[in-house]
Amino acid sequence: MFWSRKKKTKKANAADIGVLPRHLAIIMDGNGRWATRRGMPRTAGHKAGSENFVRTVDACDRLGIQCLTVYAFSTENWQRSDDEVQGILKIMHAYIIKYVPELMKKNIRLRILGDLSYFDEESRRALGDSEKKLENNTGLTLCIALSYGGRNEIKQALESLIREGRTEVTEEDISNRLYTAGLPDPDLVIRTGGEKRISNFLLWQSAYAEYYFSDVLWPDFDEDCLLEAASEFGRRKRRFGK
Ligand code: IPE
Ligand code: IPE
Ligand code: MG
């Protein structure tokens, strides 16, 4: 039997990684399984997931990533049980209200990407107020995909072009009508939780994104895991079809 050293935890350091993704997008999957494995209700997994989300925002901010988009709740997730949906929304609501002052201190801009027509007026106003308070910040842009579906987003962009009476459109016209208008396309999309699919996330924007799939469940996807994904991204050769 050997004495083994406690695993060292790294603090994110851009210099160790090389080329950083300008826009990092994360499908934060595996909260439910994380809780079930511990004999806890699924909402406990969402709570643990939201705590990891806070740590991840902090790590991305320190790393100097320009834009972070997290997939928090999909249009399809509305079909889950009322209890689970309410649990997730309550956690997200608490996060957004509680962390606005901290995001302000860190110069972080907030954007909510998604179909907010599912929410009542008061929730929409609260989300809009938080975005507004942070809109002039110039540091990390944090996008939370909430009630988000990629197909629905493209459909809405096309509907807006139709309303404008357009008969011809460019790719740029479509990009400019997506929730992500004005943001760079994601360079790296990470999915945690072991599934290898994109589940309706940033379909248009990820045309040339690099994908990174991890078996680690979201609440356990720590800074070392993030650094590993970022380092692998740095080693990939992107060709964009050329
Ligand atoms: C991801 O975790 C969070 C949301 C979809 C809201 P899940 O809730 O999908 O967790 P698993 O995939 O069932 O473990
Ligand atoms: C994708 O995870 C959505 C979010 C992480 C918010 P899901 O758990 O909903 O995806 P599927 O059902 O496994 O495809
Ligand atoms: Mg899941």
Main traits of this protein?
globular; alpha/beta; 8 helices; Undecaprenyl pyrophosphate synthetase; 14% strand; 6-stranded parallel β-sheet; 242 residues; binds 3-methylbut-3-enyl trihydrogen diphosphate
State the shape.
Answer: globular
CATH class: Alpha Beta
Using only CA atoms, what is the Rg? 18 Å
Question: What does the largest sheet look like?
Answer: 6 strands, parallel
Order of the strands making up the biggest sheet: 3-4-2-1-5-6
Please tell me the overall pLDDT.
94
Name of the CATH architecture: 3-Layer(aba) Sandwich
Output the CATH homologous superfamily: Decaprenyl diphosphate synthase-like
Outline the low-pLDDT stretches. none
Bound molecules: 3-methylbut-3-enyl trihydrogen diphosphate, magnesium ion
**Beta-strand content:** 5-15%
Helix and strand composition category? alpha/beta
Helix count? 8
What is the number of E strands? 6
Order of helices and strands: HEHHEHEHEHHEEH
Question: How many domains, as an integer?
Answer: 1
Distance between the termini: 54 Å
CATH topology grouping: Undecaprenyl pyrophosphate synthetase
Percentage of residues in helical conformation:
40-55%
